[in-house]
Amino acid sequence: MRVMGVDPGLTRCGLSVIQSGKGRQVIALDVDVVRTPAEQPLAHRLLSISDAVEHWMDTHRPDVIAIERVFAHQNASTAMGTAQAAGVIALAAARRDIDVHFHTPSEVKAAVTGNGRAGKSQVTEMVTRILTLQQKPTPADAADALALAICHCWRAPMIARMAEAEAMAEAQRRKYQATLKAAKTEAKSVPGRMSRSAT
Fold this sequence. Notes:
Radius of gyration: 24 Å
Strand content: 15-25%
Oligomer: single chain
Order of helices and strands: EEEHEHEHHH
Number of helices: 5
Strand order of the largest sheet: 3-2-1-4-5
CATH class: Alpha Beta
Helix content: 55-70%
CATH topology: Nucleotidyltransferase, domain 5
CATH architecture: 2-Layer Sandwich
Number of domains: 1
């Protein structure tokens, strides 16, 4: 499975691509950070991010996109910009029929370091070890993008099992409702049959 990890942001947007192997084996294929100047109009900044992301998607052809989930408790302006960048990325993926999954920062930290409250330096250190990189990825946005891709690679089997379980539960619910509806319909028709036979 080929996963494109994205750490969304307006000023810096981290991009990475990882190939998963057997078990927990993961191989880094590419990593970069897209930067947009703060003085540039918002629409142009989003366009720059969109262009870069679409180029990556068309070049690397990932099977899935892993994006960091935005939290409302962050600085309002930062959260808004991050959400806008994430939306542009999700849209580009949808146009290419690529699955998109969102992971919280704590999920990513826990997957990579074993600690959902780990600091950025610890995440960077573990990403470097896991991928056996010769040097630490910089800036932190690059390491975060790689961590997101690693997180999804390792969590994908569990996500698939959860989706399968949810689908089975939904199928059972619909079957039960159909049976219940049929029973109610049959119950309503019984008095009518009895009154006709009495006459």
